[in-house]
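does this look right to u?? protoporphyrin IX containing FE version
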Amino acid sequence: MFKDQITPTMSAARAREIAASFDLRALPADFLANPYPVYAVLHETEPIRRMPDGSCFLTRYADLVAVYRDAQTFSSDKHVEFAPKYGADSPLFEHHTTSLVFNDPPLHTRVRKLIMGALTRRAIAEMEPGLVQLVDQLLDRIDAQGGGDLIEDFASAIPVEIIGNLLDVPHGDRGPLRDWSLAILGALEPVVTPEQHALGNRSVTEMLDYLRTLVTERRRQPGDPERDVLTRLIQGDATGDKLSEVELLQNCIFLLNAGHETTTNLIGNGLLALQEHPHAREGLLDSLRAQQGDPAMLENTLTLAVDEFLRFESSNQLGNRRALKPTTVGGVDLPEGALVTLCIGAANRDPAQFDRPEVLDLTRENNRHLAFGFGIHQCAGLSLARLEGRIAIGRFLQRFPGYQLAEPPTRGGRARFRGFLRAAFSIR
Ligand code: HEM
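got this back:
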């Protein structure tokens, strides 16, 4: 119905024009609305694109995997890049340079071990009943209203509760989490305005103040370390190794943010992709109807669909690494200190890796997409994100098979985190 408005088409000439002068620091609006034709040109013409600031933009699947694999050469530590970006004494600098995702071992390893202990297969399976209940409550409310906003009333309402439960943040305190998260992650965009900068810094400060109180309270009354990540991070591991106060608070902020916008975008992008691809939607609905009495088949069908949404419209489109020594990627020499941007969105459409990459194929097998990254930093929450995507999208679709957008949706307009801000819809 709103085909052109969801993902506008881009002419081949325009895609070539953008690719020829491609610069992450000067992205045109039509690229942000639909970057894929430009990625397709870059795959063919300049898969390792040197940008005006000297960094390299990588679009080939094989090159991304090679960089992810070699964490000894390609560092995730961002002190060098973020000092000029944020100012070395700013709250954003301290936050982003202390979180595990922007660190190398040993800090990365210590924090990751503690987090992973609370994200075991069993712990995640135990979250499913509560998640189903939450999703059904949201669907009941939408049903009573005859529709609503896909993002505000549904997609964004789920991760805030799930990630809030993971750290056992009291329900009444969860209100500001989404805005803090949007502001702090928004400051990772290639270009940040002074207003976004100020908002990001203020959000880190406010979140730190909030978490200090929560941590003091949790120290007084610890939770169950098998499930409560905050208690785990406070208590440290069996060897007695504990995080410093700054490491603890900053990694709590990161966790609350990491599981937030990304998962909102998975759910929103998935439901909007179905709106835009009626054939895929009908196919998925037919399978769900046919498999009604078979939970295992249903789970398998929805898992394949969720992975295809992640490949097709990756919520996190970009990653970054810095070469610690002279090296080579895809036949191109890089000097020590070279900055590389890993374009996940492009690698996930690489024709050398995926058959018919521009087709949304919800039954795609062997879908080894990079939406969760790869290697030592691969997303710690991927099983949780898949569970949220499967339950949210599956139950929404089964409950409202005929949902329709009421007006063109509003995109987030970001290069790194791809998603929508608003998408009004009706259910019949
Ligand atoms: C669809 C949803 C999600 C997507 C697309 C996503 C994507 C990613 C990606 C691409 C990375 C790797 C970054 C890099 O290598 O530079 C990452 C790391 C991470 N993600 Fe996610 N994520 C999602 C949901 C979640 C959730 C729900 C959680 C919370 C439990 C989470 C926690 C983390 C953590 C802790 C890391 C850092 C891992 C490390 O550095 O070792 N993510 N995520």
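Residues 194-220 form the longest helix (27 residues). idk if thats expected tbh
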